[in-house]
Specification:
heterodimer, A: about 280 residues, Uridine Diphospho-n-acetylenolpyruvylglucosamine Reductase, domain 2, Enolase-like, domain 1, 3 domains, 12 helices, B: about 850 residues, alpha+beta, Aldehyde Oxidoreductase, domain 3, Aldehyde Oxidoreductase, domain 4, 7-stranded mixed beta sheet, 23 helices
């Protein structure tokens, strides 16, 4: 398939990218790796007249420590996130989940920022940053602002980013003391999107669960948190029955999509099973 | 072995005595795992794909395709498209209607078959999403793609008909003139079926669905036409399996005289039957190039190909199997509905008929009846896809054998053992009228059972069932045989096929002693250059590297019937062998003359002619080739050349067979099926190149497993292809497939001098039922007796939770029509 004609702007700085976006408004799309945007353009489902490539902006790449957080440049590729020692040490769940994004080619080109700004609830990373309660730093003509993950995803393929804003950094907490994690991805073939995914991060304290957060992939138009499960686990004992009964509530309040892979009832069932499995591993119980 | 490792294959070959020390020279190439001559250019990107061809002044063609499954075309206006930048021409179907006739179907299976006109570009109605309605030609492919949107087509929508049983009610007609959507009904029987069923203690009755599949060759289709306007001559380059058949038929379609049309299949990247056709784009490209007098190219995109290149399978199978209480088969009734799609392509109606002979498989039974009704629907046409009728047949009988075994409480291998033809009984005439020349089902099954660890796995299965393990173990078996080596021409004639089944080869001995083999087969991944080199080198006594093979160009190989249906080695390879023997036969006369000996006293071995009893005085084949070139001293009446030709028409099909065993782990909580182990023991007769055989088996297994677990072309009720790209159509990759354990038995075919049988489709045929049998076996104690293919996690999960005869269907609401009207009747009698 051949995309419609478009102009290409390679931004050498965030400011340049924002200026280009401000100039072209809704006609412009940001190219941040291209593994979602280019297929849409090739199918002529997206027709941007200008593509603003931010993939060569060095300042947007890399991982650094910032007190109790890790700050990840939006143009860090999935492969770089997977291999990054800081991510591995302090936020293993992001490393593990990113290693399941797409296939090797996608991970070599695709970026964390691109995957999040695309706003696809079937992607793996939105649910993971939701569970991590990550902060997304966006920059526009007026400077930077920070958006909480729960506020970032607005609807299917729609985020809190304004047309002239660029996602520049993803800030995730270090899960250093007492945290366990797991991401369960369930799909048809290895490189396919998750039918359902469940990301659990659990903090244990004195043999009990102090805090549990569960993000679900592809269970709605945005990544959702299994809040009933999370509440049920707060202060609960680490035992299989407690995890199981909490996981039974994982699909509460969700409105999962229906497609060739799954009708909603099956998705809800998978959410419960995968959440139980993710919790069992995350809680180490 | 789990991977294709030349050294490991060589080691195995050496162990089994196929290759011993010193074989690196000129002798005994057949049986050796020679690395493929084709691969160096493939893996270094020096391949001549059709889309790589660039000609001076070449234009690019793009096709406007119908977005509707069924509609009357009320207006096609290409004038705006012609004004677009870079556009050279644009044509509607009406604009080109005088340039060609309809596309051919070469297999009128019955005298009253409905064979509707199939114009390359629709003029009256569109009949499937993807049907061509106009063509745009531009200076580059980007301009052509952009201009497609400027073609204005008005449609008057008509209801789609995507379901065969609905189509047979003739409420919506795909072809108005035909008055019916029934294309044909083809009955066939052997023995007294009613009596067999009357005598039966047990009758198992099932409906199975062979879902529609999309072949997905790695190279998309592409066409380049180079016209020489002044001479009215044309070269058609096409990513095709059948340059010779294409030349003959597309010449007829376009009115270009056959001798003015050269067809070239350059390097072709896979076909699986999808390039065994005469396609609209080939005809359109020729007539547009003729009009414009300029070369042009068309290359399909993947999603375009998913609509416009043939699909495979798509059958409803209603089956009844009758047996005695101790498991002896009595009779088998097969009633098929086969989805033709919107039009008949080259062999569309013949595909289920090829299967008709294979439903009795390797078993003895008293009676068999078959009936197939071909049905038109508003979907992409179907045609041959790897195995073509035979995978469907094998699936039916092998699933039924497992169901019968369950009904009788008998081990499924034991049930097969009680019914199969034993090795002493060959040649054996089956109830379907075929004569199987050879086979040893016992040996293949014994080998598979022991490599698989059948008894241990059964023990583990029992333990998991008893402990209520959420992950259940299932064991699936499939035996198979297939008819390969298409085909004895007289048999094809008796089946009303439009051509023969012979194949040609010629040998050109060059003055330097090097050899060119010209073959009528047209490889597209099979490695004929390597295998034919091995065959020729052994007969001629020349080094393997001194042989090259020319193919796929009607100017080089003027005669041939191309590659499909596991025919190439069994027919074309034998032609090479015989042509090479003819070279030696003639060379012997010349060598005798050179050695001043009587021809009867001359022996040929290891590339040398010598006089019996005087091995020291000899002439090599290369000496003879050079002497013939000089032609200074030829024997009287002998023409100075060492070239030869052979056209080989087989007497019978060949019948590869094998036994496959599959163990799956089914996660009953999620419905996920994981293949734990897979053993394939195939008997493809004598093996020319074990590494190529191994590759064919691996690829075939992947494709067959794909049907069992992953792939399905889904249409919604409006006739839209929902699985329109690789995003939704799940072609499995290496991470989704298990390690395969493969082994062989070698029972030579008796129908050809090399004893070869063919291997192109074996893996695909056996693996689908092996996997589905394993899935059902894992869940049978939960009341499941079928899971509809592909056994997706949702279907498996629903089958478990419905219990009983659940077909495990879990279609999305958008495909609900398909779900309800094709739901499985799983009842037992």
């Amino acid at each position: 398939m051949i995309p419609a004609a478009f102009d290409y702007v390679r931004a050498s700085s965030v400011e340049e990218a924002i200026a280009a976006l401000a100039e072209h408004g809704d006609e412009a799309k940001v190219l941040a790796g291209g593994h979602s945007l280019l297929p849409l353009m090739r199918l002529r489902l997206a027709y941007p007249s200008v593509v603003v490539d931010i993939g060569r902006i060095d300042a947007l790449r890399g991982v650094r420590e910032d007190a109790e957080m890790l700050a990840i440049g939006a143009m860090t590729t999935h492969a770089a996130v997977v291999a990054d020692p800081l991510v591995r040490e302090h936020c293993g769940v992001l490393s593990a989940a990113t290693g399941q994004v797409g296939d090797r080619q996608v991970r070599n080109r695709g970026t964390i920022g691109g995957a999040l700004a695309h706003g696809d609830a079937a992607g793996d990373l939105p649910a993971v940053v939701a569970a991590l309660e990550a902060e997304l730093v966006v920059q526009g003509p007026g400077g930077r602002r920070t958006v909480a993950a729960r506020d970032f995803f607005v609807d299917y393929l729609e985020t809190a980013l304004a047309a002239d804003e660029v996602l520049v950094e993803i800030r995730v907490p270090k899960l250093d003391h007492g945290w366990g994690y797991d991401y369960q991805k369930f799909n048809r073939v290895a490189q396919a999107w998750a039918i359902v995914g469940s990301c659990a991060v659990v903090r244990r304290e004195n043999g009990r669960i102090a805090e549990a957060r569960v993000g679900l992939t592809n269970m709605g138009s945005v990544p959702v948190r299994a809040t009933a499960t999370e509440s049920a686990l707060a202060g609960a004992a680490v035992d299989p029955d407690a995890l199981r009964s909490a996981a039974e509530q994982a699909a509460e309040g969700t409105e999962p999509p229906s497609d060739l892979n799954a009708q909603p009832d099956y998705r809800r069932h998978l959410a419960r099973v995968l959440t139980r499995r993710a919790l069992e591993r995350a809680a180490g119980g | 072995m789990s991977k294709i490792d030349p050294e490991a294959v060589a080691e195995q070959a050496a162990e089994t005595g196929q290759l011993s020390e010193g074989d690196e020279g000129t002798d005994r190439n057949v049986g050796a795992p020679r690395p493929r001559k084709e691969d160096a250019k493939l893996i270094t990107g020096q391949t001549n794909w059709t889309d790589n061809i660039q000609l001076p002044g070449m234009l690019h063609m793009a096709i406007v395709r119908s977005p509707m499954a069924h509609a009357r075309i009320t207006r096609v206006d290409v004038s705006a498209a012609k004004q677009q930048p870079g556009v050279v021409a644009a044509y509607s179907g009406a604009d080109l209607a005088d340039e060609y006739t309809g596309l051919p179907c070469a297999w009128p299976v019955t005298a009253d078959m409905v064979s509707p006109t199939h114009l390359p570009i629709a003029t009256d109605k569109v009949r499937y999403v993807g049907d061509a309605v106009a063509v745009v030609v531009a200076r580059d492919r980007y301009a052509a793609a952009d201009a497609l949107e400027s073609v204005d087509v008005e449609y008057e929508p008509l209801p789609a008909v995507v379901d065969m049983e609905q189509a047979l009610r003739d409420e919506v007609l795909v072809h108005d003139d035909a008055g019916t959507n029934r294309c044909f009904t083809w009955p066939f029987s052997g023995g007294d079926v009613e009596q067999a069923f009357a005598e039966a203690d047990v009758v198992v009755k099932r409906r199975f669905l062979q879902q529609r599949l999309i072949p997905t060759a790695i190279e998309p289709r592409a066409v380049v036409v180079a016209p020489i306007a002044a001479a009215d001559e044309y070269t058609l380059y096409s990513a095709t399996q059948i340059p010779h058949i294409l030349r003959l038929l597309v010449a007829g379609v376009t009115g270009i005289p056959e001798h003015k049309l050269r067809v070239v299949a350059p390097d072709v990247g896979g076909g699986f039957g999808s390039k065994l056709n005469v396609y609209a784009e080939e005809a359109i490209a020729l007539v547009v190039a003729r009009r414009l007098g300029r070369p042009l190219k068309w290359t399909e995109s993947r999603s375009e190909g998913y609509q416009a290149t043939i699909h495979g399978r798509d059958q409803i199978q209603d089956l009844e199997l009758a047996a005695t209480g101790d498991g002896r088969l009595l009779g088998f009734k097969v009633d098929l509905k086969a989805d033709m799609g919107a039009y008949l392509q080259l062999v569309t109606p013949g595909v289920p008929i090829l299967g008709a002979f294979m439903f009795p498989a390797i078993y003895k039974m008293d009676a068999y009846s078959f009936s197939c009704t071909g049905v038109f629907t508003t979907k992409t046409p179907t045609d041959a896809y790897r195995g073509a009728g035979r995978p469907e047949a094998t699936f039916a009988i092998e699933r039924m054998m497992d169901e019968l075994a369950a009904e009788l409480g008998m081990d499924p291998i034991e049930l097969r053992r009680r019914n199969w033809i034993t090795h002493e009984e060959f040649p054996y005439e089956t109830v379907a009228g075929l004569t199987y020349d050879s086979g040893n089902y016992e040996a293949a099954t014994d080998k598979a059972e022991s490599a698989f660890g059948y008894a241990e796995l059964r023990a583990e299965q029992k333990q998991r069932r008893e402990s209520g393990d959420p992950v259940q173990l299932g064991i699936g078996i499939s035996t198979y045989t297939e008819m390969c080596g298409l085909a004895p021409s007289r048999v094809l004639g008796s089946l009303s096929y439009g051509a023969g089944g012979w194949e040609t080869a010629s040998i050109r001995m060059l003055p330097s002693g090097k050899v060119e083999v010209v073959t009528g087969t047209s490889p597209h991944g099979q490695g004929h250059v390597t295998s034919w080199s091995q065959i020729a080198a052994d007969v001629l006594g020349v080094p393997f590297d001194d042989v090259d093979v020319r193919h796929g160009d009607t100017a080089v190989a003027h005669s041939g019937l191309d590659s499909y249906g596991s025919r190439s080695l069994v027919v074309g390879g034998i032609a090479v062998h015989k042509a090479a023997e003819r070279v030696i036969e003639k060379a012997k006369r010349i060598a005798a003359h050179m050695l001043e000996a009587d021809e009867g006293d001359v022996e040929f071995a290891d590339g040398r002619f010598s006089v019996r009893g005087s091995p020291d005085v000899s002439k090599t084949i290369q000496d003879v080739a050079l002497a013939v070139f000089a032609a200074h001293d030829m024997p009287d009446g002998v023409e100075p050349n060492l070239d030869s030709e052979c056209t080989f028409d087989p007497e019978n099909f060949s019948f590869p067979h094998g036994t496959h065993l599959c163990a799956v782990e089914v996660d009953t909580e999620t419905g996920h099926v994981g293949i734990r182990s897979y053993v394939a023991v195939d008997d493809v007769g004598r093996v020319v190149n074990p590494m190529i055989v191994e590759g064919q088996v691996h690829g075939g297994l992947a494709q067959g497993i794909a049907q069992a677990l992953f792939e399905e072309a889904v249409y919604d009720p409006d006739g839209n292809l929902v699985t329109g790209s690789l995003v939704d159509y799940y072609v499995p990759g290496a991470p989704d497939l298990p390690e395969f354990t493969t082994d062989r038995t070698e029972t030579p075919a008796t129908s050809n001098p090399l004893g070869v049988k063919g291997v192109g489709e074996a893996g695909t045929i056996a693996s689908t039922p092996a996997v589905v049998n394993a899935v059902v076996d894992a869940l049978r104690h939960l009341g499941v007796d079928d899971v509809r293919m592909p056994c997706s996690p949702e279907r498996v999960w629903r089958a478990i939770h419905r219990g009983g005869g659940g077909n495990g269907d879990g279609r999305a609401a958008s495909a609900a029509q398909v779900t309800t009207s094709q739901s499985v009747v799983g009842g037992r009698q």
